[in-house]
Structures are given as structure tokens and as C-alpha cells.
């Protein structure tokens, strides 16, 4: 494998998320440089970035290793996402551009069509693109970056069950876009909070005792407005 030096960080992160580099395993600069077809300099820089993001830790006598997050840390990530995604949606309602709306509406149309047909293969990737675009529409690079990191880390730590009702899930996506398009920040926040809470219950830890963090986060939330989204 040979990749551009500036893409080394992304490649290592993707491989950590995919389980190519196991939790707790050593990450030696020499072997990584050979794997990705680059010099050790971009590898060293990538490891520093990934350590700052929480994917890598430096251990005495061992050097860089893949981090081994605890169940509590994993649960905290879900709770952070449940707080930040509604904030991002509220900001998007005030700051989105017509280009953002066009992409969001297109993704909702595709998602709803695939969900009605029972074509679930690409629904997860469509959902990822939807939430990435919604974060970008917030107009806050810092918030977008935090949400992107959270999605990467949650994908690394959790397996996610398919929604029991994909059609209902994409109806919620549509309600979020409707609120964002109307500039209704509070409605966008409320609908996104409900959507995030429901999605959290589908997460299963890839390590440890199983569902506990997702259940802990869901059960710790204050009641939210569960009125059916307006269409």
C-alpha cells in the first residue's frame, strides 16, 4: 500500500476503527511506514494527532499503542454526541446555506426511498453523510470536527444494530431538515435530540460486558418532547 503522506493519519485511524490494528497493540513507526509506503516522518506526525484524538496512547517501554478505552469512556462518548448533535442542528437552522439544504434534502429522499424498498445495504452510509452534512451546516468548524471525531470513535467502540423501522428513522431525518429549512432552531434541537436518543439504544459495545454504556446513557437522559415530528 502506498498513500500520500498527508493521508497517513486518516489511513491509520480507519484501520484502527476497522480493527486492523487491535486494541492495545503496538504501533511501530517502521512497520507503519512500510505498510503505508511512506517515510517515518508522516507516521510520527500521524501518531501524535491520533494520540490527541484518543485513538493512540504512549506507554513507557512500549511506545505508541492503540488505546484501550473503558466502558465508562465509551458511554461518555455516546452522551457527548447526544448533547452536541442537537446543538449542531440548532446552529444549522440559523447558519445553513442553500447548498447544505439541497444536499440534506437529497440524502433524505434517497434514504426514504431505500428504506421503503427495504434496501438497507447503503442506509448506514447515507445516514453518515446526512449527519456529516448537518454538522457542516452548523457553520462551526470546531463543532464539526468534534462531531466527526465522535463518530469515528463510536464506530470503533460500538457495533450498531439496524433500526427496527428504517422508514421511521428517515422520517425523523426529514423532520430535522424541515426544521433546519424553516430556521426553527428549537425544533431542530428537539427532533435531533429525540433521534439521537433512539439511535443510542442500537449501540452494542465491541468489548466488555455489552450494552451497559448505551443503556446507561439512554436511561440517564431527562424526558424530551416526544411529539410526532411535523412533516
From TrEMBL:
Biased segments, Polar residues type: 220-231
Superkingdom of this protein's organism: Bacteria
Gene3D superfamilies documented for this protein: GntR ligand-binding domain-like (1.20.120.530), Winged helix-like DNA-binding domain superfamily/Winged helix DNA-binding domain (1.10.10.10)
Keyword Cytoplasm included in the entry's annotation: no
SMART domains per UniProt: FCD, HTH_GNTR
DNA repair found in the keyword field: no
Pfam families: FCD, GntR
Protein name: GntR family transcriptional regulator
